[in-house]
Amino acid sequence: MIGERCQVTGGSNTVTSLIPVTCHLTPGALVLLLLCLVGAPVWAETSNRIVAIVNEEVITEADVALRLTSLLEDLSPQADAEGSPEAMRRAALQQLIDQRLLVQEAIRRGLSVSREEVAERLGVLHRRFGSEEALRQDLEEAGLSLGGFKRQIREQLLVQRLIDQAIRSRI
Q1: Are 88 and 68 in contact (CB under 8 A)?
Q2: What is the pLDDT of residue 41?
């Protein structure tokens, strides 16, 4: 029924949609559907919640969660047991803030990284993982897209250039 309205009624609840499928839902399925629809905006709102702004650049709860996951993977089980969840969250947020400040400073100083340099670094990682597919799978398990990973590589290279420049200026 493409383009037609699909109306499902269960008890006192009615859902109207333009979804191009035939709808046959029991009242129990309708309740489950409604719970899913109500829960999705709550998750989106929570993960998109702004936790910090660094010179007009936003850091969201999702950014902190991703960094926290990375931090926890890097820690030994003993170190993980010693840190409180809130302390770990603060550490992840502080790392994100520091990273953003360093990247912004590198850009302010006119430093840049070419697409070719990012591709070269990505190629090295492909070889370490054995294949592009193995790398993609590992990124997916970590909750990171290839585009997001390329952005991280670019930022790491920018910060590395900034540090190199600062060290050279003192020699």
Answers
A1: yes
A2: 45
Phi-psi region of 143 (alpha: psi -120 to 50; beta: other; left: phi over 0): left
Q: H helices of 77-141, where?
A: 77-82, 85-108, 115-129, 132-141
Which is more confident, 45 or 57? 57
Residue 61: count other Cβ atoms within 10 Å of its Cβ: 16
Which residue in this structure is represented by tokens 């399925």? 29
Residue with tokens 């333009």: 18
At 84 the pLDDT is 83
Can you tell me the mean pLDDT for 16-25? 35
Query: Which two tokens mark 134?
Result: 């193995």
Sorting pLDDT into bands at 50, 70 and 90, what band is 23?
very low
Q: H or E element: which one contains 71?
A: helix 61-74
Residue 16, strand partner residues: 7
Q: Give the closest residue to 96 by CA, choosing from 69, 120, 121.
A: 69
